[in-house]
């Protein structure tokens, strides 16, 4: 389940800046002596308290959660199944600090602490260690077209805090690592079908077999719906993946994964300015090939070599018009295609009984073709070279030190060095303090630097919503944090707290350039470009999560984040919500009945900029409810699960607004969410 812990309610009243006072009260309130005086109700307490999940993402070294040099949330397969969610971003709403919103049903805005433009790229997203950021998706993640089915996910590890020292530029504020199941695990056949409101039509199939030397698994899924009511928002996607794991000797194993997705979605609004964001369809095709070789000459040593290629193609075209100016049928498009090739070698070794290390090298080449997005230079490319190393030293039985560094170089830019120094102190066997410092860099994306979008009509420049800025500097963040991880006998609870201060220099944001008067329509469609802020952006605050099991069959998951935002640019500060919280109640009722309820509260937040940088809008705070009720019966001896699920049950609300469209409607939200309810039948659930 979500490996998260508990927190004294009294701390909710403290402002994010009171770091030391909050930490002191936390330790006092959760001390072992005090906890021993409280009642304990738990059926599987010893098992729950004895084991912590092993995580790999924070340092590339396998380690228990309480030894990691970072705050980590693990969403495991059991929780994924219990929620019944149809997409991955919905799961990430359960993680403290994650701020996730939808401009429409097929468009997910996934961030940590909110910062980001229309296509956030400030948090690395991996599938089995493979980055899924795409230069063909404005260097962001297309969550709807991501070729990963929910059923094949083993767990999701979310590193809350900068981790560029392990995964480079995009891990500026954190990492989401989606880990798929080994193909030899739980072989067999599984099939599912779902239908419901908003024309939901889902289907899934899993076929797998295993032997002593490995396994093979095929996953396929169809996802279809009409999205939010009142919007041009339908989608239909087909996804498939094939994973093979094969042990070729006592010391060698290879993994092969081939995955693809294909589909279409509806976008745009009917009344956008000159139809610049008009109603249209977008067709996309994504494919990935991932090869991995693992060599373990001794129990304490491992070589890992992997290569992957990501390819994507999008076709999205429509026409603009300005009848008042005698202008019609101006062609617009976001047609694009890209290829990423990546090769990485990693070596993990134990130098002694108290010292471990991992080092590696990585090389990458990105190529994107998009004539309309890069006027006059349709083909763009970028090259990356990376060298990283991490050490973990237990210099005392209860103290460990993580010393790490990563050097990376993009194209002709100067190389950047990302260091990290963290210490973990096991105060008691069940209580760990963590504190440290890290610096990280984020490379400007190709589109931020070279994006040049022009609307032309009969040789005249009508509008230029995106201007290039080749001189953009790479932002960097200095992050200081303190953390506390505890396993409490009280109500069989795990607690994880993070106090953070993140200072970002040269933050990149999109800024209007009103003095640029070249386009004919500059008065109503001003130009904009990405620029570095001259002053820092600072985020400081408190986030915590708990996983409590007060009664047999009952699990409570709670997360809460308070964030103080400091910036001279008000529009940037408003990209981050000042608070967020989620509460999930998972219940096994016996007789093969189970239920899940999740309540989410999100503070006021603005996300994205819109195709035309015009107007400012902040979505109001909202509360929403998700629910699922499931029952398993036997059908001719085969388990059949029947589940009724729903999202956005707390009323319609707006999460992320397209600012240029919202500007036309004043304060009336243009894209409210709508409830989605569906019934799913699953044969042979695992």
Keywords:
globular; disordered N terminus; 686 residues; mainly beta; 9 helices; five-stranded mixed β-sheet; Maltoporin, Chain A; single chain; 37 strands
As an assembly, this protein is single chain
Mean pLDDT metric: 89
CATH topology, anyone?
Maltoporin, Chain A
Q: Which stretches are poorly predicted, pLDDT < 50 over at least 5 residues?
A: 1-43
Helix content: under 10%
- At the first level of CATH, what is the class? Mainly Beta
Strand content: over 45%
Structural class: mainly beta
Please tell me how large the radius of gyration is: 25 Å
Largest sheet entry: 22 strands, antiparallel, barrel
User: How many helical elements?
Assistant: 9
CATH superfamily: TonB-dependent receptor, beta-barrel domain
Distance between the termini: 15 Å
Please count the beta strands (DSSP E, at least 2 residues each). 37
The appropriate CATH architecture is Beta Barrel
Molecular shape: globular
Please tell me the total number of domains: 1
